Amino acid sequence: MSNNELPLDGVKIIDFSQVMLGPCATQMLADFGADVIKVERPKSGDLSRNVFGGQGEVSQNNPVFCSLNRNKRSITLNTRTDAAKNVIYELIKTADVVVNNFRPGVMTRMGFGYEKLKEINPGIIFAAGTGFGTKGPYSHKGGQDVLAQAMSGVMEQRAHDSVPRSIYPTALCDYAAGMHLVQGVLAAIIARYKSGVGQKVEVSLYNSMIAMQMQEAANLMATKGTLNWAALPLCGVFDTTDGAVVVVGAFKENPLQDICIAIKHAEDLSIKYPMLEDQVEAKEFLQGEFRSHFSKMSTTEAITNMEKRDLLCAPVKSLEEALKDEQTIVNQMIATMNHPIHGSIQVISSPITMSDSPFTIRHTPPGLGQHTDEILAELGLSLDDTQ
């Protein structure tokens, strides 16, 4: 591989996906060189182009859309017409992967199901992300991050029964399933090198959330016991005089003793509560003691004292603070690109660092249908052939 070549150069992806699950997956593949052709509906396009209000090009290129669609090209097609379907079939002939995150059966009804596409190109990899899978009692349900949180058991997991159930505020399920889709696509590409044929790859929000609870599930199924990291007696978030800190009192011989020293407690509470079982019984008391002592300390003092005892701890930061953190800058997690409408804008870059394949932005997030003429010309077609 030359210095200018990216790992996925030469891989062509036809991308029907929208919102987050599919787009975050195809963006990662695009970041590493794949030619991602985003197929969008005329006038409206990807749902995330218009979900945040406003009108016109500014709305259609809002920050949320831009965060998920760099390094892609956009073609608009009315896929209900036979002419547009034929354009898709022409694209499939030379494509490696087709991606969608529609409900099960939608691609088949559109004329782009796996059986149809593999007739055109036996090497095609058909990658689908759904809410709950393509079979079973929930397969008909629309997939959405919050629903998967609720139905997978994630939303029920709380530090204590008294804590209200709530929606996790970041699209955890979409991102996890998107990254699983990336893994599936890459594995299928490697498998095709060996077999010469493509295959179907499926992920779901639901499965990804079940998989993320592998430790908790294994413990529950083996012992009927509950594993809840947030509920451990020496773990918690505690207010300080100017913020908050999080403490994970685990993975040490006597973490309770170390916490007591760090917060300058008058007693070594590990003498009275030496075993984890004792600490679980006394959790309410211990947490109260922690809260009382941390509330009299600054965040810096609390972190300094705990780190002296080699305790796992961190200050609680806002996203704005995290984005400005020196570690974020050193890790090059913010990328700047020159957008044709917004000018210079910042987005999150790739979380993956490769020594010989540096992250680059080859294309800014595309305008709706921006590359229609270009893509059609590559096929030897024109707009008249899509009507």
Describe this structure in words.
The protein has helices at residues 21-31, 56-60, 63-66, 82-93, 106-110, 114-120, 145-151, 172-195, 205-212, 214-223, 255-262, 269-272, 276-281, 283-294, 299-308, 319-324, 326-330, 372-378; strands at residues 12-15, 35-40, 72-76, 97-100, 125-130, 200-204, 235-239, 244-248, 312-315, 334-339, 343-348. It is α/β, with parallel strands linked by helices and 387 residues long. The protein has two domains: 12-213 and 327-386, 3-Layer(aba) Sandwich (Rossmann fold), CATH 3.40.50.10540; 244-315, no CATH class.
Question: Largest beta sheet: what is the strand line-up?
Answer: 3-2-1-4-5-6
Largest sheet: 6 strands, parallel
Averaged pLDDT, please? 95
Helix content: 25-40%
Please write the string of helix (H) and strand (E) elements: EHEHHEHEHHEHHEHHEEHHHHHEHHEEH
Radius of gyration: 25 Å
CATH class of the largest domain: Alpha Beta
Measured by DSSP, the beta-strand proportion falls in: 5-15%
Q: Any guess at the CATH architecture of the largest domain?
A: 3-Layer(aba) Sandwich
- Which overall shape is indicated by the principal axes computed on the Cα atoms? elongated
Give the class from helix and strand content and strand pairing: alpha/beta
Give the low-confidence spans: none
Number of domains: 2
β-strand number: 11
Query: If helices are DSSP runs of H or I spanning 4 or more residues, what is the number of helices?
Result: 18
Can you tell me the CATH topology of the largest domain? Answer: Rossmann fold
Task: Give the CATH superfamily of the largest domain.
Answer: Crotonobetainyl-coa:carnitine coa-transferase, domain 1
Termini separation:
41 Å
